[in-house]
Amino acid sequence: MTPHPPLAPGKVRDLYAVSDDHLLIVASDRISAFERVFPTSVPDKGRVLTAMSVFWFRELADVLPNHLVTWDGPLIPESVRGRALLVERLDMLPVEAVVRGYLAGSGYGDYCRSGAVCGVALPPGLAESARLPEPIFTPSTKARPGERDENIDFDTCVSVLGRALAEEVREASLELYRRGAARAAEQGLLVADTKFEFGIGADGGLVLADELLTPDSARYWLAEGHRPGVGRPSFDKQHVRDWLTATASGWDCVSELPPLPLDVVTATRERYLEAYHRITGLSLADWPRDPADLRQSPGRLGQCGGAGDRRDPHREPDVHRPRRPAALQPR
Ligand code: Q0Z
């Protein structure tokens, strides 16, 4: 499909090696639930998630340098245009940096059992979906494909990364979450929790990688109607979960996921488009070329201009750019 050798097929994205220094991340229209992938895909999902990642990489570029090089131009194969990112190849850290602003998923389970999440003690009496007094950093270690990531406490994170790097990851993650959640909240969306991935770049500095604040890496909720005490499906997969867990789907929680009915696919596609529009204020029709936005800024957005960069969006990436210092220094 692409002229590049595959590196790692993911559940819903595929990774290709472009060179020793660059990778291509291709988002498919595949959709997953309960750690499995449906046999039915959702048209435009890969484009929406790619466009949303680019939006957030640009929006949050001042917090930390990120791996994004470009999303359009001669280095992007035509067959995947709009759902592919050319990124700098990094040495990935073996921890996932999760930040939670609300109590959901495995965090709620851990809290019920122990009163804490990843060693962070929380006040008693919090209901499922409750807003936390402040966002918390709850790292996990990557599991093998198909298995759940394992939550770890900060001391374990320190033993893996070393103290200085663990603290830099934690402080960057919390700032990325605060900034992202604040922007989403302006448009009526809550970011219940999200996962960030980081790597070490060629100069040894911390770099934000992977996807950023997409519905596949963050749990978005509609602010309207949010109420503690009730577990809520994410904004994007509400119709999918509702249908799957209703008896009509016939799914037994064990078998392969059944094909999604067309009305569920259509409603889900509309949710992704709505999320994109709410968060970015943009229409997917303009993606990946946005005539209203001439500020497009490929290439290590954290250091070369970000939102203010007015260079040609289709230029070749400059691979040997000097890096600015990380916005956040370990304490
Ligand atoms: C990301 C993943 C995907 C399967 C490795 N900049 C980077 N440098 C080195 N490695 C990665 C990155 Cl983003 C990297 N993943 C996650 C993505 C398909 C797995 F699209 N694994």
Structural notes for this entry:
With 331 residues, this protein is an alpha+beta fold. Helix content is 25%, strand content 22%. The protein has 6 helices and 17 strands. The protein has helices at residues 45-59, 105-114, 154-161, 163-186, 238-245, 262-280; strands spanning 6-9, 13-17, 22-27, 32-33, 36-37, 68-70, 84-88, 91-92, 95-102, 116-117, 120-121, 131-137, 140-141, 150-151, 189-200, 206-209, 218-222. Strands 8, 9, 12, 13, 14, 15, 16 and 17 form an 8-stranded antiparallel sheet that branches. Strands 1-2-3-7-6 form a 5-stranded antiparallel sheet. β1 and β2 form a beta hairpin. α1 packs parallel to α6 (262-280). The radius of gyration is 19 Å and the shape is globular. 41% of the residues are buried. Ligand Q0Z binds at residues 8, 10, 13-15, 23, 25, 67, 87-90, 92, 199, 209-210.
Looking at this protein, list some descriptive labels.
alpha+beta; 331 residues; disordered C terminus; five-stranded antiparallel β-sheet
First-last Cα distance: 46 Å
Largest sheet: 8 strands, antiparallel
Based on DSSP secondary structure assignment, what is the total number of beta strands?
17
Low-pLDDT segments? 302-313, 316-331
Helical stretch count? 6
- What's the rounded overall pLDDT mean? 89
Order of helices and strands: EEEEEHEEEEHEEEEEHHEEEHH
The geometry reads as globular
Structural class: alpha+beta
Radius of gyration in whole Å, from Cα? Answer: 19 Å
Portion of residues in helices? 25-40%
How much of the sequence lies in strands comes to: 15-25%
Molecules bound to protein: ligand Q0Z
